[in-house]
Write a structure and sequence with these properties.
It is an enzyme of class 2 (transferase). Its EC number is 2.3.1.-. InterPro entries: Thiolase, Thiolase-like, Thiolase_C_2. The chain is of the alpha/beta class. The protein has helices spanning about 30-45, 70-75, 90-105, 140-145, 150-165, 170-185, 200-205, 230-235, 270-280, 295-305, 315-320, 340, 350-360, and strands at about 15-20, 55-60, 80-85, 110-115, 205-210, 210-215, 225-230, 245-250, 290, 330-335, 370-380, 385-390. The strands form two sheets. It has a ten-stranded mixed sheet. A two-stranded antiparallel sheet has the order 5-6. A hairpin with a 2-residue loop joins strand 5 and strand 6 (about 210-215). The model has no long low-confidence stretch (mean pLDDT about 95).
């Protein structure tokens, strides 16, 4: 398969810097302060000055302050590209896509993409972080609310239950994902949760919204992450191994939650994944590492199906196959522990680990073969999806 892109190799986009703040239950800094710190660290990681940045893409989480004022905080002047983006968990991948297109079109030379959030409050329950007051919905949305559907837990649980009813997927199969990712997290010094768990632990953890146990659900974290996107030619002369941006794709299904909708059975990964792989000139068989958005175990399972790692409806059996997932498994999935066990920075979680793996800097968790890395981002209630295919320097 040949790439669709005709861009000269020297102008093709590459990721040259990665900046991570302290992550997890980190109190004190605001989301805006985390964002500024992440950009500074990404620039330092790349070996460039802030004055070298001529493009800035900003994405906020649930807390205010991460907005266009970040330019002033960082002292950036005469930006050629600057905007705030929001497609929830798919935004990080989309930011890299737009940054790559800008670099390849000559709109900007060095673009910083940043996300930060600080939903955790000292002395308040973690579960309250996303439980803020919401506007009462009208119309169809009010019917859902009166039926008890409020917030992502219940909607994702509904999606998972539909998959279970249609294909026979089981809670134990979802648990296999949680167990495997915790095994990866045990090797990641950045991970919030590193103690091993068993399938019995998963099954014994309390229900959040059936069929989801606590260990099916992602963490909540404070912190920020940023990446620097520039041309491959320039990246080759900077401080870190360049990570090539080989392909990308987006999909926004527009779920209606009405009759005949395929909600819970197919995600935007089914469109964005093939598009990104076609652009990169690879197939799913060429993927060495898959960093999959895992706000819930079910999201990871559905995405693996839709990317073609297994057949539709076969995800449960696939992930539960002995020797498939985990540090010694056949398929390297969420090698840092993912959002379930490592840290939750929306789409920056899979993206940051993908960069670490592609650079060969994963330490104890480093995957030996890491030439081609697939990154997924999922936003809303399976409403938005972004896919990146990254390549190691070579």
């Amino acid at each position: 398969m040949t790439s669709r892109r005709e861009t000269p190799a020297r102008r093709r986009a590459a990721i040259a810097g990665l900046g991570l703040t302290e992550l997890g239950k980190v109190y004190g800094p605001s989301a805006r302060q985390f964002a500024a710190q992440a950009v500074r660290r990404a620039a330092g990681d790349a070996g460039i000055g802030l004055s070298d940045i001529d493009g800035l893409l900003v994405s906020a989480g649930t807390t205010p302050g991460v907005d266009l004022s970040l330019q002033v905080d960082l002292g950036l002047r005469d930006l050629r590209l600057f905007t705030q983006m929001q497609a929830f968990g798919s935004t990080a991948g989309a930011m890299v896509q737009y940054a790559a297109m800008a670099v390849e079109a000559g709109m900007a030379d060095t673009v910083a993409c940043v996300f930060a959030d600080a939903p955790l409050r000292q002395g308040k329950a973690t579960g309250a972080a996303y439980g803020g007051r919401r506007t009462t919905p009208a119309g169809w949305g009010s019917l859902l609310g009166s039926s008890g559907f409020a917030g992502p837990n219940s909607f994702y649980a509904l999606a998972a239950r539909r998959h279970m009813k249609t294909y026979g997927t089981t809670s134990e199969q979802l648990g296999a994902i949680a167990v495997a990712q915790r095994a990866w997290a045990a090797k990641n010094p950045l991970a919030q949760l590193r103690d091993p768990i068993t399938l019995a632990d998963h099954q014994a953890s309390r229900f959040i919204a059936e069929p989801f146990h606590l260990l099916d659900c992602c963490l909540v974290s404070n912190g920020g992450a940023a990446v620097i996107v520039t041309s491959a030619e320039r990246a080759a002369s900077l401080a870190q191994p360049a990570v090539q941006v080989l392909g990308w794709g987006q999909a926004h299904p527009g779920n209606s939650f009405r009759r005949n909708d395929n909600f819970g059975l197919v995600s935007g990964a089914a469109q964005s994944g093939p598009a990104a792989m076609e652009m990169a000139g690879v197939t799913v068989e060429d993927i060495d590492v898959a960093e999959i958005y895992d706000c819930y175990t079910f999201t990871a399972l559905l995405t693996l199906e839709d990317y073609g790692f297994c057949g539709k409806g076969e995800g449960g059996e696939f992930v539960a196959t002995p020797g498939m997932l985990g540090p010694d498994g056949k398929l390297a999935v969420n090698t840092g522990g993912g959002q379930l066990s490592s840290y939750y920075l929306w789409g920056m979680t899979p993206l940051s680990e993908a960069i670490i793996q592609a650079r060969g800097q994963g330490g104890e968790r480093q995957v030996p073969k890491h030439d081609t890395v697939l990154v997924s981002g999922n936003g809303g209630i399976l409403d938005h999806h972004s896919t990146l295919v990254l390549g190691a320097e070579g």
